[in-house]
Design goal:
It is built from 25 helices and eleven strands. With 681 residues, it is an alpha/beta fold. It has a seven-stranded mixed sheet with strand order 7-6-5-8-9-11-10, sandwiched between helices. The chain has a four-stranded antiparallel sheet with strand order 1-2-3-4. Helix 1 crosses helix 5, helix 1 runs antiparallel to helix 22 and helix 14 packs antiparallel against helix 18.
């Protein structure tokens, strides 16, 4: 009887222990996704926010796991502390511009951003990392903690897709509404909404409305000059436009300008239907324009629409936002230009623009413009560039179909009886003067970097140019990595060296293997997320899905890694195979569903290998090393996050990253030495 009572007590303790491990995973997942979304908004939709959050999160977890191994603490205290700190971290991210004394729209240097992110993210991640080690000490089994934490992370990732947007919407409408108002000083906050595509904010100042999604300005009403330049140079360059595709930001005034051409039918492609509904509801005149019989509003990915419409359009007007995010960069790549080429009629014209400065162009601005011109010229036989504060690119499907002659454009403007405020005969003649056009020709005569979906050179060039407004550090760092980035390929050398030591009879250096495994696992995860953004069009909602898949794979891997060394070897080979398939599929440049499944599979494989390695490493090391192994795994992930998201992907592309992942996995598979002997770190 006494033994049964003890068994019941042990079962209760084990249940409480497993529940805490599961809650650790749920809270970690929800906190990570919430912070990623907040940083996306704070960084104007730049996906580097995901890399930064992941980098700091993993570094904090590693520090917390390592430090908790030296000092005892309560897992419950660590967990509760992290939950209490999370709202404060969200508020801090939203208010960091005010705290740093930055004006609305002022560019933020990388150092300021990193400091704010460290203060907001690292304390929470340290507590959660310490909670893991404390649970291992209390439960006496690291594999069990790892498995239940991964299961909780999987559940949290699924909850983040459905439940988190509703919670954040409730908080923004209630307790945290003041933070949204403080986030936009000097503006009246009209409305805010969470959607699968991002956080939408509508602001009003002096009768002008500005809409932001994920912190990036979509449009501002009343910017007549921008709207007129964007629309009329494109339509006047075509001899007789009849059907037009307008991609994004039509609600800012572009629709009204297109409707001045009575014979034109317009498809207005808007990614987020929630943004369109908000515009209809709150912005005067937008509902009337969208209700015009000549306008068809198409919600969803504009590139998917372009791929369906072969030979349907006379003019396509794209590039409403500069390529400062992978989402915007999708409309400046070789792949999109090829899709637009097929969607145009034989005499069709593609128009897009890029911000710069007419009076002075630094080296980074020149790199952006040259890259875009080189990319477009590789697809279209004729590309014209019009100078100004917005450099307008006009690409013709056939030679001689696009004109940049001021006299021809002025005659067409008058013949079509188009009433404009700025784009008039004298303005066209001044902007397209011979000396200005000669300067542009000299600028684009120098070849630039080709921008593709899988190697977003235009995105990184635009980010570097934007960063020069605050500091010239970022371009210098990129240049250094281009020259010395090959050093990253030394990582597998260390791993292979460890394997050779094992083959010669030495004990397996498990720590080296864990660092390499952490590197390749997180590298493949980041690559999958970035490619998903580039190919499918949005990652705001998908962040939780990728986290769930990764940790779901980790749950399975933690079980496989315990079966046998041959089971682990199979996981390593599977990772190598998955990385190779991932690279091969994406080299075929698919879009939509095919690319989605390739990315999801790569994420699952990355989690599977990570969980298998960790479980196996615990089985071949001495007791008491669980926290250190966890820290080493996370340290490799930190290195992988830093190298992958900031350097390898932008500079070498997905192909180069996939090659690196396959090489590391191949080194581990080829050099693996099955052994059940206790190993040293």
């Amino acid at each position: 009887m006494k033994r049964n009572n003890c068994s019941q007590v042990d079962d209760k303790k084990r249940g409480a222990f497993e529940l805490r491990a599961f809650l650790l995973g749920v809270i970690s997942s929800l906190a990570q996704v919430a912070l990623v979304r907040e940083l996306l908004t704070a960084f104007y939709g730049n996906e580097v926010a995901y890399v930064l959050v992941l980098l700091l999160w993993l570094a904090g977890n590693a520090l917390g796991a390592w430090s908790a191994g030296r000092r005892r603490g309560s897992a419950t205290v660590f967990l509760v502390g992290a939950v209490l700190l999370l709202p404060a971290s969200i508020v801090l991210i939203r208010l960091f511009r005010i705290i740093l004394g930055l004006a609305m729209g002022e560019d933020v240097g990388p150092a300021f951003v990193c400091v704010a992110a460290v203060v907001a993210i690292v304390p929470v991640s340290i507590l959660l990392g310490a909670c893991f080690t404390a649970l291992v000490r209390a439960g006496k089994t690291a594999v069990r903690v790892y498995t239940f934490e991964a299961a909780g992370f999987l559940a949290g990732g699924l909850l983040s897709v459905i439940w988190l947007p509703m919670v954040m919407g409730f908080l923004d409408a209630g307790p945290l509404h003041f933070t949204r108002e403080l986030q936009w000083p000097g503006y009246h906050l009209v409305a805010t909404q969470e959607s699968p595509y991002g956080n939408i904010v509508l602001l009003e100042k002096g009768g002008a409305y500005s809409m932001f999604e994920n912190g990036q300005r979509m449009f501002t009403t009343g910017d007549v000059l921008f709207s007129e330049e964007r629309v009329h140079f494109a339509l006047l360059s075509h001899s007789a436009p009849r059907r037009v595709l307008l991609i994004g930001s039509g609600m800012g005034g572009a629709l009204e300008e297109v409707l001045k051409y009575p014979e034109v039918m317009v498809d207005d492609a808007e990614l987020d239907p929630a943004a369109v509904d908000m515009g209809r509801r709150y912005i005067p005149g937008v509902g009337r324009a969208l209700s015009d019989a000549r306008i068809r509003v198409v919600s969803g990915d504009a590139r998917a629409l372009v791929r369906r419409m072969h030979g349907q359009y006379d003019v396509i007007i794209a590039g409403s936002m500069p390529p400062l995010s992978l989402l915007a960069n999708r409309y400046y790549t070789v792949e999109f230009f090829k899709e637009a080429f097929e969607a145009l009629r034989p005499d069709g014209v593609l128009s897009f623009s890029a911000p710069a400065s007419e009076n002075y162009l630094n080296s980074e601005a020149k790199r952006v413009l040259r890259g875009l011109y080189t990319t477009a010229k590789g697809v279209f036989p004729e590309v014209k560039v019009l100078p100004g504060d917005q450099y307008i690119f006009l690409a013709g499907k056939l030679p001689g179909t696009v004109t940049d002659r001021a006299d021809v454009l002025a005659v067409r403007l008058k013949a079509r009886a188009i009433r404009t405020k700025f784009v008039q005969e004298y303005y066209v003649a001044s902007r397209l003067s011979p000396d200005r056009m000669a300067n542009v020709s000299a600028l684009v005569d120098v070849p630039g970097e080709v921008n593709t979906d899988l190697r977003p050179a235009g995105f990184m060039a635009a980010v570097a140019y934007q960063a020069t407004h605050a500091s010239d550090m970022v371009p210098k760092v990129f240049d250094i990595f281009k020259a010395w980035g090959w050093v990253v390929f030394l990582i597998p050398v260390f791993a292979a060296g460890g394997m050779l030591m094992a083959r010669s009879g030495s004990k397996l250096p498990v720590g080296t293997v864990m660092v390499a495994a952490g590197f390749v696992g997180i590298a493949l995860q980041i690559a999958a997320l970035f490619v998903y953004q580039a190919k499918v069009g949005y990652s705001y909602m998908a962040v939780g899905i990728f986290s769930a898949l990764f940790m779901g794979g980790a749950v399975l891997g933690s079980r496989v890694g315990r079966w046998s060394d041959q089971g682990l070897l199979s996981c390593v080979r599977g990772l190598c195979f998955s990385g190779g398939i991932f690279a091969w599929i994406l080299l075929l440049h698919p879009d939509g569903g095919m690319a989605s499944w390739a990315c999801f599979t790569a994420s699952l494989a990355a989690g599977l290998s990570t969980g298998a390695f960790f479980s196996w490493a615990l089985s071949v090391t001495k007791e008491g090393f669980a926290g250190t192994l966890y820290a080493l795994d996370l340290s490799g992930a930190v290195l992988g996050t830093l190298c992958t998201g900031i350097f390898i992907l932008p500079i070498w592309g997905v192909e180069g990253l996939a090659l690196l992942c396959v090489w590391i996995a191949a080194c581990l598979a080829a050099g693996f030495y099955p052994s059940r002997e206790s190993a040293d770190l």
